Amino acid sequence: MGLSQSQLAASLEVSRGACGQWEQGVSLPSVSHMAELARITEVSFEWLATGRGRVAPPSEPKNAKAGSEEDGLVTEFAGRTLSGELREVVIWLQKLPKTEQKQVIKMLRSMRNLMSA
Fold first, then answer.
1. What's the predicted TM-score (pTM) here?
2. Which helix (H) or strand (E) holds 49?
3. Which residues pair with 76 in a beta bridge?
4. What residue spans define the domains of the chain?
5. Half-sphere exposure of residue 95: CA atoms within 13 angstroms, side-chain side
6. Lowest-pLDDT range, 63-72, 76-85, 94-103?
7. Which of 8, 43, 98, 106 gets the most CB atoms within 10 Å of its CB?
8. 1-58 domain in CATH 1.20.120.430?
9. Integer Cα distance of 13 and 33 in angstroms
């Protein structure tokens, strides 16, 4: 894709140093940053996260509507199509501004921790 660390950092709203640490394997991006990184670099989330699967994201089905509300949104994960309420939540979350996404993710993590305690 040819992006510099500075350009990528600006797109992801993180520091250039964070991108450098990810690139060097010093630290890992959050799931939300990884999803956005996959979108920006046009690689599949599964490949980026695990090194397995196809590098390129799945192509759009031939019968997909052009200009639909869900264009460009993650509707697959780990090679499986999300369906029902989970798909609805993922689409809703992806449409939120990054600051609100972070708040929702923080709340969900807190709920997960309470439920597993």
1. 0.47
2. helix 45-50
3. 81
4. 1-58, 82-117
5. 10
6. 63-72
7. 8
8. no
9. 9
